């Protein structure tokens, strides 16, 4: 691993090559494994016509899927036990896939059996608990009823002895002579019913039996673990008295319908006490058995948790290897596997070393063969990025992946994106707050990178280096605007202006004189708070926005030249790059020149008037709007150049493309015959070439017309679009000023501690919520639009596809997501 990788080149993607690897079957698995560790080879699917079930290694993938299912079952058991997966656990030694399959099967069987036994024991335990409650509560019913009946009998006896009557002997004689067999015997059903269903239960019983039952309920104070559901439920103990077999059947059916658990009961006090003692003994035994079983279950789950990460990684790795092996095809001898795919040119040596190592480690007699193929197929795009540049590259890739080796906007985005953001967010106080928040994320990146974060936090953490650059540039532009939470400071020296006399301190520049040299860096602090502040800053920021926009659009057109030069497309240089540069700079490049000249000379010329009458009456004298000698003639020349540039873009390119197409196909009737394989390959190339090179002059002309109109109109609209830099900068400054003056200073003026504290809290929340969150998001989106639309549409095609190598690191990340 002592080799040094080539330096990163973000300007163009890595040179790629299509390679074929012929691998002996005995070393295929190890070869794919080593290539997955390397992560620099993208396999092509050579079996795209086959379904997943028809492929060679479908059985092995099914095995891995079954093991993954068992591991998911183990994860559920670990979550039930409250255990965490030990990251990168070092427990246990290396284990093969076959051994792991057997072990996982044994552990799953053991856990399922233990869970089933525990569930049965727990259900029996819960049933006994309920039975005990029924015996106790229903026993209270009968005890209370018997006590009440005895009391009534005693009262009746006393009443008869004391008062006596003529009817008493006859009634007593009648009671004594009644046949016992003719007395009505009441049956009863006891159990527990959920409390939320108890009222409906009582109502249905009454209606179904037409009132011929007697229901007695007693509330159980604590929730009871239901044996069927396994959840704690609030319940009532009930006893239903009935008469007759039909009533009994109805009562039993209603109990079943309401989920009431029925338990046998005896009204014999002695037997009831004996049953309570027996149930209590069984409960104690079951509790001991359940505790021992739970302890054993916990130890098994803990053993699984110690090696869970290792097993999961092995299964994921093996499954991805077999998925990759399924993309390979057999050669004619059925003894070798053939792989095709893309890899960077710089990775050739590393791949060959991995193949050699796999051959040696698998004790294969034949080594794998690596050969480079020549193809006209467009290669994938691969930029080697690090944790700093990857976020900027993602911003570009969200618009579209770069075509193979075209100029990459990501390189320039590293600087231009945070800078344009900062132009709209210029306040070094807010920039410092943003910087400190981002610094916190960067200092804790090791911790956060291994954690699951929320969606918003995940986005902020992923773009931490983008936000860091945005905050640094915001501090820089804040120094230029001289704003610290909208308050100016004399950081780089004293103001150049002072009052002529004491009466001029009325917040106006009138009456001020320049007493010192110009303020060395940024806006003079004396401008802030004056009546001239808004017109001055408006003029400054609007002109600056146009200069920045024209500069970035020129950069985009310049990159189109480098693309054309790299791909040796002279037509695009002569009939696209040159007329576009002429058109853009004849109008808006000239406007930028006027802005700079006006700043340098301090002229009062009206630039709006100059630009409007440059089109309406180019031959008129400029009068007081003339900034330099020969300006009128220069304007006429630039206007003529802009007019010439439009047909220059529109007409020649389609005609030249048509001529080239005719010349290219004029001599294709015959081709040299070399060898059979080469001839077949060339035929295939010609066919694919013909398929992609179908030429329709009308389509090309319409496409060029649309492109020309889009550029001409876009030059105006895109330049105007850059004025958003001025608008958002002004909005940010004014909001900051309002929060400072109307909240903080207003609260300070009341000379009351409570109002001051409330004012400070409101100011902090307004600053964080509006300026540091909403304004940051707003400026970010506008900077994104300026890059995607105004900058990238000048040169960036973005119709490529990403290099997606087979890599175990990428596979594990995707599975975690």
Could you characterize what this model shows?
Helix content is 62%, strand content 8%. It has helices at 28-38, 58-81, 97-162, 167-177, 198-208, 245-257, 269-325, 348-361, 389-399, 409-424, 428-443, 445-449, 455-462, 464-481, 533-566, 570-601, 607-616, 631-650, 652-666, 676-692, 697-721, 724-749, 753-791, 808-816; strands at 16-24, 42-43, 187-194, 213-219, 224-225, 232-233, 235-242, 261-263, 329-330, 336-344, 369-373, 497-499, 512-514. It has 817 residues and is α+β, with helices and mostly antiparallel strands. Strand 9 and strand 10 form a beta hairpin. The strands form four sheets. Strands 1, 2, 9, 10 and 11 form a five-stranded antiparallel sheet that branches.
User: Which structural class best describes the helix and strand composition?
Assistant: alpha+beta
Helicity level: 55-70%
Largest sheet: 5 strands, antiparallel
Please give the number of β-strands: 13
Q: Treating each run of at least 4 consecutive H or I residues as one helix, how many helices? A: 24
Q: Please tell me what the overall shape is.
A: extended
Taking all Cα atoms into account, the compactness measure Rg is 44 Å
| Mean pLDDT score | 86
N-C termini distance: 30 Å
List the uncertain runs.
1-6, 165-173, 673-692
Task: Give the strand content.
Answer: 5-15%
Oligomer: single chain
